[in-house]
Write a structure and sequence with these properties.
about 240 residues, mainly alpha, Globin-like, 3 domains, three-stranded antiparallel β-sheet, about 5% strand, flat
Amino acid sequence: MDWPITDIARLAGTTSRTLRHYGDRGLLEPSRVGANGYRYYDERALTRLQRILLLRDLGLGLPAIAEIIDRQADDAVALRDHLTRLHQEKQRLDRQIASVEATIEKLEGGEQLMAEDMFSGFDHTEYKEEVEERWGADAYAKSDAWWTSMSADEQKAWKARVSQLAADWSDAAKRGIDPSGDEARALVERQVAWLGSIPGTPRSSDYYVGLGEMYVADGRFAKNYGGLAGATFVRDALAAYYR
């Protein structure tokens, strides 16, 4: 069984023009084309379209969507991944709803507002475009889904872990320890374990060495390690570890 393009466009909440565009990009081929030039789509094509729309709703562009779909050929497995992300997004929205409801209740009751209670479920996406440009949209989508799946307490604990690691790096730099010594190597291993806990993070030595260079080159990252001197120490320790 298959369905004409106009029916599918209506059911999917999109347009025939968009479906044809997906076809022109090689994303969604029709199962057949009628004598009148109409495109028709079978069940397999509809499953593929569902995957395209789900990925699009995650903010991915068509090139990234094509790459992900081609890499995950098993539709059922891929849709299970999508379902996990949808549940995570639902949890995030539930936290937002609860946060806004609590704010309204306190405003109407004349109670004091607590900043830490007002922004549960609101994502920090300041570096979204930069991450996607450097490491790809899929890397950002995975890490964002992982972050939003955490509870507020889990996010707080994770931030505390990162802050302690940065402080330890800064302290070691100030004490002038050897970047290739045992203490520096232990810090590198903690850094790699921290980064490796984030889904979508590359695992290659070149990636970690390149991060060290970025810490020095970009003041936004250098300040996390006490400034240029601290970032330089981190860079040198990473380079020594992977030499």
